[in-house]
Amino acid sequence: MTQRRKWAIIPGLVALAAVAALLSAYTGAMQQQQQQQAPDTVITERGAWGYSAASSPQGRAPVQPIAFPHPTHVQTLGMNCLYCHFAANKSTDPGLPAMSTCMGCHLVVGPNRPAMNGRPARVSEGITTLTNYWKKKQPVPWVRVHYLPDYVNFPHMRHVNAGVTCQTCHGPVQKMTRVYQYASLNMGWCVNCHVGNVNPAWKARYDCSVCHY
Ligand code: HEC
Ligand code: HEC
Ligand code: HEC
Ligand code: HEC
Ligand code: HEC
Question: In this structure, are residues 34 and 47 in contact, taking their beta carbons and an 8 Å threshold?
Fold first, then answer.
């Protein structure tokens, strides 16, 4: 969501709506199929509808350069989501943790893991890869899971500050060995909550210009 195109996009949107109607049967079938698959199934290909003018597809779970385990950090270590996604309550974009956030611990918790909790001593592939990026002074090239098209305005902080939990939209990330897209991120999904169907306390404006530039 870097380039914010203006109202000139609207005629294009109308054309897109026609295309969307044609594709909707197909998309619906695909999404149903995706929901039936195990949550961690890799869906790296974007479907025919996955042109840049649409949201990322439900079930999307790209392979990451490091198999970062949310369950270890959130459940075992008890870390708060905002420790790493530091801007979710302040900004449109929640942000991904900087290398220094990881290395604050992983300079101490290094690749050589001692025997622990009944597991034998081992070398952690994930922490080795992380340390190699750090030595090369390179950021980890995380693959983005969720994205909305450029013509949609989505302010994270408004939602987080209104008390909508991360899990309402992202599902049980604390249990995901690999992050996958839990919700459809389509327009109906947004509007359904804004009209108050998910929780009457979460009513929000839903005129077109609220979400579209
Ligand atoms: C609460 C947020 C929200 C509101 C309000 C909203 N939209 Fe959308 N709209 C979206 C999102 C998100 C998408 C992207 C959907 C996708 O890619 O699946 C979208 C996509 C579209 C598209 C592209 C075609 C498509 O379905 O993929 C058109 C056209 C559109 N909106 C028109 C409108 C009009 C007209 C209104 C007012 C009646 C409106 N929108 C109100 C969130 C919203
Ligand atoms: C120790 C740091 C850390 C903590 C704590 C953490 N995350 Fe993450 N999160 C990451 C990293 C690194 C990525 C990118 C790699 C990936 O997708 O697995 C990520 C990715 C994500 C994504 C996918 C982003 C995208 O590309 O679309 C979501 C959603 C997410 N985290 C939500 C959460 C939630 C919700 C919590 C709390 C329950 C949480 N995270 C706690 C580090 C963290
Ligand atoms: C608060 C300290 C802390 C922070 C911050 C932290 N980690 Fe960890 N991480 C740990 C601990 C402790 C373990 C468990 C090590 C074990 O099981 O032996 C771990 C485990 C891991 C593992 C799995 C190791 C394995 O093979 O089981 C990976 C990969 C990892 N961390 C990557 C990251 C990345 C990437 C970041 C930054 C986004 C990060 N960590 C931030 C403390 C932290
Ligand atoms: C109302 C639904 C909703 C809530 C609540 C929500 N998110 Fe998101 N999140 C989204 C959507 C939609 C996107 C895609 C945004 C885009 O492309 O602009 C996203 C994208 C992300 C990303 C990837 C964007 C990036 O910066 O790389 C992360 C990380 C993330 N969310 C973390 C969180 C965390 C952590 C929380 C809770 C503190 C949270 N989200 C709460 C809907 C939500
Ligand atoms: C689970 C419920 C939920 C979902 C899903 C959701 N929203 Fe919201 N949205 C809210 C709430 C609650 C607010 C805060 C209203 C307030 O602050 O008064 C809000 C506020 C907003 C605002 C600011 C509205 C204003 O009055 O300025 C925008 C823009 C927005 N949402 C866009 C979206 C888009 C785009 C999507 C889908 C990609 C989406 N929302 C999905 C609940 C939701």
Answer: no
